[in-house]
Amino acid sequence: MRIESPRNPKVKSWAELKTRRGRREQGRFLVEGARELARALEGGLEPQAWLVWPERMGEQEAALLGNAPVYELSEAAMRKVSYRQNPAALIGVFARPERRLEDLPPDPRRVLVAVEIEKPGNLGAMLRSADASGTGAVLVVGEGVDLENPNVIRASTGTVFTLPIAVAGHDQARAWLRERGFQIAAASPAAEKVYWEADLSQATALVVGAEDRGLPADWLETADVRVKIPMKGRADSLNVSVSAALLLFEALRQQSA
Predict the structure, then answer these.
(1) What residues contact residue 130 under an 8 Å CB cut-off, 6+ apart?
(2) Bridge partner list, 50
(3) Most buried residue, 46, 67, 79, 245, by most Cβ within 10 Å?
(4) What is the mean pLDDT of residues 52-57?
(5) CB 47 within 8 Å of CB 94
(6) Rounded to 10 degrees, what is the CA torsion of 90, 96, 101, 102?
(7) Band of the pLDDT at 196, cuts 50, 70, 90?
(8) Are 227 and 185 spatial neighbours (Cβ–Cβ below 8 Å)?
(9) In whole angstroms, what is the distance from residue 173 CA to residue 100 CA?
């Protein structure tokens, strides 16, 4: 089906998926770009529709098209739907997946717990580091950014679809970790122990919070160990995705020794 006008009701509905409210109300979201779409399909997601900019379609994008309606959009319509300054040739429309604790692997050695992360680029970069370090599961806790945010998807390079991820409340997440015997290691600038001094060789959940507020008190109080990243300059904090990467790869190093 060819859609020329950006005022078409379908285009308006798809464009609303760029907002969190639109994603919640419609129960679906957009994935843009061949790399991200390939990983969404690899992760088992099934498209509801394909939005195509025919003039820009290449072999890589064409190879992804499957059993879903295909809508050919004009340049104006594609620019209205896309969140990128230079739209990709292909966008997929998907139902929002359930991300439940009971669907996570039963015995991951390393878990990243991302608490109330508000910036989508940070959360996406954390997921990318979790994937690169072979982290077994990720818990996204609290009222932070949603995982279907376009910038989370892009910053994660699509690994948001291939990592085992669950969304949970604070008490629910802690209970799940305790039931499985994880050591809870909470990152805090006020901790006395430097992160490489902590024993992360056992099954460990590495907990990081938002840059401006840090972790809530209940996570710090219930942690088995609190760790810090030493800082020698004038800045009072690191980007949370950088902090997460340091902790994840230190845990990998210790568990690989």
Answers:
(1) 112, 138, 159, 163, 244, 248
(2) 70, 92
(3) 245
(4) 93
(5) yes
(6) -100
(7) very high
(8) yes
(9) 11
Domain ranges of the chain: 2-95, 101-256
Tokens encoding 41: 């399909």
Q: Which two tokens stand for residue 141?
A: 């806790």
| Cα 109 to chain centroid, rounded | 19
- The structure tokens listed for 199 are 């024993």
Domain 101-256 has CATH 1.10.1160.10: no
Which amino acid makes up residue 32?
A: E
Is the CB of residue 15 less than 8 Å from the CB of residue 23?
A: no
| C-alpha triplet 143, 147, 152: angle, nearest 5° | 115
252: three-class secondary structure by DSSP: helix
* Mean pLDDT computed over 44-63: 94
pLDDT of residue 34: 95
Q: Give me the CATH code for the 2-95 domain, please.
A: 3.30.1330.30
Are 143 and 167 within 8 A, CB to CB?
no
In this predicted structure, the answer to whether residue 252 has a pLDDT above a threshold of 90 is: yes
Instruction: Output the pLDDT for position 238.
Output: 82
Composition of the chain by helix, strand, coil, percent to 5: 40, 20, 40
